[in-house]
Amino acid sequence: MEExxxxxxxxxxxxxxxxxxxxGSIDRDISHVVSLLNxxxxxxxxxxxxxxxxxxxxxxxxxxxxxxxxxxLFVTHEKxxxxxxxxxxxxxxxxxxxxxxxxxxxVQCRQLENAQLLHSVAINSGFRNSGVxxxxxxxxxxxxxxxxxxxVPLSRRGRVLxxxxxxxxxxxxxxxxxxxxxxxxxxFYDCLxxxxxxxQVNKSCLTEEQxxxxxxxxxxxxxxxxxxxxxxxxxxxxxENEQQDDLDSELTLFN
Length: 255
Hints:
Elements: H1 3-15, H2 31-38, E1 43-49, E2 52-58, E3 71-76, H3 82-89, E4 95-101, E5 104-109, H4 112-124, E6 131-135, E7 140-145, E8 150-153, E9 155-156, E10 159-160, H5 164-196, H6 208-211, H7 216-227, H8 240-247, E11 249-254
Domain tRNA wybutosine-synthesizing protein: 9-193
Keywords: Methyltransferase, S-adenosyl-L-methionine, Transferase, tRNA processing
Pfam families: TYW3
């Protein structure tokens, strides 16, 4: 099967699947980004999250770092109030952890050059932890990720360890991070739209690298090679097994 037809088949299968995320739908604050990508001939999203503030209750003395054996006491994709967290914390019987998780987006790209463009847009929009993965089946996945996370333990075996004043402080901190997160999403959307439609280019979105159509990490790699002595840019639709298969990569390129 030709490469273009295979990509179309993957896209159709993915977008026709049920949403397997806990929420069961695309977050409002990232839906326009998802629509823009899915309406393109070169991309489709495999998972997305606009960012969230959560309070998770884990099992005491559990060494499993995954989310198994955890219960969700509180979750929101918007700013939250101190009272919401305090009320949820009263339900804790284990080790409660308060977290802010920024926007994350996984996008399958038709070709590597499409992933490179998306990578440049992501980096220049503030998503500095973004990377490209090429899987064994030839699937090119672009992960749009940021680094401004927050994770704070609040209770131990159901006993709250911090003051109400401290909870107010971390809620304010998380809300500030959420506000910055939403600004980055909008910048990413504006820059992506400009990159996909040159007639709508907003030069404030583009750096010198994008203007010259050269990916950021390619230029950095070339500089590294030149300086070397021997030198010569949710998961919502897939099951966990399918996601893992896509991420079992032969080649990974991170910023």
